[in-house]
Amino acid sequence: MFYLLHGQDIYRSKEKLNELVAHFKTKVSDLGFFRIEGENFSEAEFKELLKGKTLFEKKYVVVCERVLENKEASNFILDNSDDLAKTDNMFLFLEEEVDEKILEEFKKSAYKIQEYKPLDGIKLKAWFATKKIPANIASEIIKKSGSDLWRASKEIEKYALGELTAKQETVAEYNPFAICDAFAEKNKVKAWIIYQQALKWGIPAKEVFFKILWQIKNILLVKKLAGAGVADIAKESGLKPFVAGKAIKAAKNFSEEELINYSYEMLKIYHEERRGESELPIEFEKLLISS
C-alpha cells in the first residue's frame, strides 16, 4: 500500500512524512527502510522493492521523495500502480506538485492522500498557537514569513534561543551590497564578518543568500559575454552600467568554472533546505568561508 503527501506547503508534508517514518520505526519491529529520490530513480530497484522480498525476507518502508517529478519514473509507477496498491510493504510518496493525471490515478488505489496547501488567516494563526509563543512575537514572525513555515520555524527557533524580540530594528547603516563586494574580492573573512553582522541586525540569512546568488549570476553573465568577445557588455547584459562595471571588475577574480560551481552549490543549498535536508544559514556560512 502507499501514501501520497503533496502540496506547496512542503514544511508540513515533510513533517507528516517524518511522523509516519518515526511511527513505523517505534511501533513496528523488524522493518527495513529504503529511500528513493527522483534524480536517482531506478526501475529495477523499484520493481525489486515492489515484489516485497529482500535479502532478509522482512517487510519494509520505502520513502519516495520527488520521484513523480521524474517523467520516466512517474510513467513507470503508474504502469505498476496496481502492484503498488497490493504490496504488503509501505511506500510513502512526498511531492510538492503532482500532475493532475497522476493524482487521479493515485486516488483510485492509494491508501491515503493528503494535500498540504499554504496556511493563511485563521489556520496560520492556529498553527502558531501550537508553538506556544507570545501573540506579539507570532505577529512579528507572520509579518516577516507569511505562509513560509520553513522561515517561520527558523524565526521561532531564534526566539527560543533568546535572539528574537517583539520589535526588531534593522541598523540603518546596513549595506546589503557590502557582502557582495567582499565576495567579489574573494575576501572570505570580510564576507563572513558582514554575514554575521547582518544576522545580528535581524537580516534573514535567505535575504543575504539571494544577494550573493544575484552577484554570482551577474559575474557569470559578463564573464561569458567577455569570453565571446562582446564589446558593449553593459548593453548586451541588460545590467545597469554601474552594476555591469562592478561585475566586469569582479569577473577578473574568477574563472567561469568557479562561477558555475558556485551557482550549483547555491542552488543545492536552497533546494536541500526546501526538502528539509539542511539549514540554509549554516550551509551558506560554510560556502562563504570556503569561497
From TrEMBL:
Family: Belongs to the DNA polymerase HolA subunit family.
Annotated SUPFAM superfamilies: post-AAA+ oligomerization domain-like (SSF48019)
Enzyme class per UniProt: transferase
TM helices/strands, residue ranges: none
Record EC number: 2.7.7.7
Xref: Pfam families: DNA_pol3_delta_C
The name this protein goes by in its record: DNA-directed DNA polymerase
GO MF, any single term: DNA-directed DNA polymerase activity
Domain DNA polymerase III delta subunit-like C-terminal: 175-289
Source organism superkingdom: Bacteria
Any Gene Ontology CC annotation: DNA polymerase III complex
BP-aspect Gene Ontology terms: DNA-templated DNA replication
Catalytic activity: DNA(n) + a 2'-deoxyribonucleoside 5'-triphosphate = DNA(n+1) + diphosphate
Keyword entries, A-Z: DNA replication, DNA-directed DNA polymerase, Nucleotidyltransferase, Transferase
